[in-house]
């Protein structure tokens, strides 16, 4: 058997896109309430109390809308997180539908959090989903690896599209 002397090469674009998709999906994994938690993502965390999803049948359109919303939310979540981090250092758990988690922040951090929460709701609804439906999809992808892979594939498709 002949061994090639050429170095192993990896095409960076697909790897970067896959990493981006995984990052976006990981970030949205914290979405268990009506809008995102601002801390760095942790897949098992949730925020707020919300009714459990009763219908786990999601249309292709809902999956696409969810992926688009997740992509748009992640950059804003990261920006808000970094702004609050500059004010408070270690960012505590901030939950959009738990006013005490926002009101406890010092300085202008509460305004940053509220602005983010308001914008997150607008983004979700602007992508054609209710916040409740967005959260149903989030909970489903947290508990179903095949469904999570479906969403990840949709995120990759969107990130790879020239639009």
What structural keywords apply?
6 helices
Strand and helix map with partners:
Layout: H1 12-28, H2 60-88, H3 99-103, H4 109-126, H5 131-143, H6 145-160
Outline the structure in words.
This protein is mainly α and 163 residues long. It is built from 6 helices and no strands. α1 (12-28) packs across α6 and α2 (60-88) packs across α6. The chain is elongated. It starts with 11 loop residues before the first helix and ends with a helix. Residues 1-15, 29-35 and 40-55 have low confidence and may be disordered.
Helix content range:
55-70%
Query: What multimeric state do the chains show?
Result: single chain
- Would you report the number of β strands? 0
Protein structure class = mainly alpha
Number of helices: 6
**Straight-line distance between termini:** 45 Å
Low-confidence stretches: 1-15, 29-35, 40-55
Mean pLDDT over the residues: 75
In short:
The protein is an all-alpha fold and 163 residues long. 60% of the residues lie in helices and 0% in strands.
